[in-house]
Design goal:
Elements: E1 2-6, H1 10-22, E2 26-30, H2 33-42, E3 47-51, H3 60-69, E4 76-80, H4 87-94, E5 98-101, H5 106-123
Parallel strand pairs: 1-2, 1-3, 3-4, 4-5
Helix pairs in contact: 1-5, 2-3
Length: 130
């Protein structure tokens, strides 16, 4: 499965890459929303993770809103260290499918990747497990 992670923190990116490798997933990374917008609009991956605070002119929620306006249907998960009251709702309103707080819990990342990999396989008509 192809996963895009829009994140400007190298430690968080390294963690996601390590967890993704456990499931044999590929991670593409983008440090700025503007670069991600161009790439993800042209060739959407199977799952997108987006940090809310990014370097550059556009933040994560603006990126998500713009991708949705462009018709990108890929599942998007917001990732943020700012788990304040109302943040989850703001993420969902912007077009995110889910929300993960930082520090990223490895077990939740594994479950997230497994769920989306299974959904992707089912959409292609492939059998999983069993």
């Amino acid at each position: 499965m192809r996963i895009a992670y829009v994140e400007d923190n190298l430690a968080n990116l390294a963690l996601v890459r390590r967890v993704a490798r456990m499931g044999q997933h590929e991670v593409e990374s983008y440090a700025e929303a503007e670069a991600a917008l161009t790439a993800l609009g042209q060739n959407p991956p199977d799952l997108i993770l987006v940090d809310l605070q990014l370097a550059g002119q556009m933040d994560g929620l603006q990126l998500v809103s713009t991708l949705r306006q462009q018709g990108v249907q890929t599942p998007i998960v917001a990732v943020t260290a700012y788990a304040m009251l109302g943040d989850r709702e703001r993420c969902l309103e912007a077009g995110c499918n889910a929300y993960l707080p930082k520090p990223l819990p490895v077990s939740e990342l594994l479950a997230l990747f497994e769920t989306h990999d299974t959904e992707k396989s089912a959409a292609r008509g492939e059998r999983t497990g069993g």
